[in-house]
Amino acid sequence: MELTINYNDIDFDVEFDYTPEEAPVMYYSDGSGYPGCAEEISIYSVKYNDKEFLDLLSDSAISTLEELISKELADNRY
pTM (2 decimals)? Predict the structure, then answer.
């Protein structure tokens, strides 16, 4: 997927893979269950003016971008 994300007043073109959250199941008919899993966002490209910036970003900045992507996806129901 690709979104334009505003981070520090700069519009970055971010490419990423997204796996939505899976809700837990307390019990299946056989007595087992499923703990579910959180959503997962894996960023593999962050560009501005067609220049790659992913390797220049700190882990904190990447986490912030992931949060912004999650919010954008939730707000727009992609």
Answer: 0.82
